[in-house]
Specification:
This is Terminase small subunit. The protein has one domain: Arc Repressor Mutant, subunit A. It contains seven helices and two strands; from the N terminus they run H-H-H-H-E-E-H-H-H. Strand 1 and strand 2 form a beta hairpin. The N and C termini lie far apart (95 Å).
Length: 148
């Protein structure tokens, strides 16, 4: 008597359809892959997805494009967070309107985190600009004074 065992758990086999779905969802969400995997139980776990990235160049290219789209969403979120002043002021126990420093600090942290992530994912566009190497001050002074 042959007993056929059903596989239990998340899938591990790569399919083009599942890869496309994963990349489409990544491109349209600012949520990280760990949380997306938790929200989509029919997806493989993040470790399997990372293995697919190493072993499948087509998926790796799709994933890179999806992450670039995701960065654009992060940039839009930065603007939304910066423009949201709805909680910048609160009323204290005495009835006075005061600055909500905690909300402002949290907003700053949210913006800085998204900026950092954007600079790492798409450094050509959102990364820090490198200044051209400048001549040492002593060299500049020597030329200015005609000592050279």
């Amino acid at each position: 008597m042959d007993i056929k065992k059903n596989k239990v758990g998340r899938p591990t086999n790569y399919t083009a359809a599942l890869a496309k779905e994963i990349c489409d969802v990544i491109a349209s969400n600012s949520i990280g892959i760990k949380k997306l995997c938790a929200e989509n139980p029919h997806w493989p776990n993040k470790d399997t997805i990372f293995a697919w990235l190493k072993n499948n160049s087509e998926f790796s290219d799709q994933y890179a494009q999806a992450k670039q789209c995701q960065v654009e969403l992060l940039v839009e979120e930065i603007l939304e967070i910066a423009d949201d002043s709805s909680h910048d002021e609160v009323v204290n126990e005495q009835g006075n309107i005061i600055c909500n420093r905690e909300f402002i600090a949290r907003s700053r942290l949210r913006i800085d985190t998204r900026k950092w992530l954007a600079s790492k994912l798409v450094p050509k566009i959102y990364g820090a600009r490198c200044k051209e190497e400048q001549a040492p001050v002593s060299s500049y002074l020597e030329k200015l004074l005609g000592l050279n």
